[in-house]
């Protein structure tokens, strides 16, 4: 598993207009080619009246699966420029479809490249990018009296509390880089005068906004 990688913050849609043509960029996280193709077909079905539904996707730790489709636009003017934007932003496991409704003015090959790549770039700005970091999920169990102390410590140290459970005791789940776990434990033990129990819940990806 990668220690860290970038992907889109969430699925989303963004529209731009160029010389009367509408370019609608649709984004989706995908984990395999089948899922990507299903997403592309769903957009084509939804926008069946559109002039074109061009697409690109990038999947795998080493970008093993890549495809770019022009859907009737001149070869190399849509799918490949879209794919290059995903690569430039170092994204993984993302599919994008740009729907075009023709507005009556031809853009030429250069104009199409700029339009499709621009639609993807503007779409990424709108929906956001996150960095997924592989971190240890550590559960802390302690008395209610210490809630404020733990919350304040985690806030000042920029340590995410990804889950909170309030039962007989309080259980917070914190997400930390593996190499920082022991130092964090020592700090919490000192803070709470050893009135805390720890349980490792394993490694998971935690998402952090980029930019």
Q: How would you explain this protein's 3D organization?
A:
With 211 residues, this protein is of the alpha+beta class. The chain has five helices and ten strands. It has helices at residues 33-46, 79-88, 108-127, 147-156, 181-191, and strands spanning 4-8, 12-18, 21-29, 52-59, 65-69, 94-101, 129-142, 161-166, 170-176, 197-209. The strands form two sheets. Strands 1, 7, 8, 9 and 10 form a five-stranded antiparallel beta sheet that branches. Strands 2-3-6-4-5 form a five-stranded antiparallel beta sheet, sandwiched between helices. Helix 2 (79-88) crosses helix 3 (108-127). The longest helix is centred in the middle third of the chain and has 20 residues, at 108-127. The protein is elongated.
List keywords for this structure.
elongated, 5-stranded antiparallel β-sheet, alpha+beta, 39% strand, 10 strands, 211 residues
| Largest beta-sheet characterization | 5 strands, antiparallel
For this entry, what is the oligomeric state of its chains?
single chain
Tally of separate helices? 5
Radius of gyration: 23 Å
Number of strands: 10
Beta-strand content estimate: 35-45%
Structural class by secondary-structure content: alpha+beta
Q: How confident is the prediction overall: mean pLDDT? A: 96
What's the order of the H and E elements? EEEHEEHEHEHEEHE
pLDDT < 50 stretches: none
Looking at the structure, what is the overall shape? elongated
Helix content: 25-40%
- Gap between N and C termini, in Å? 24 Å
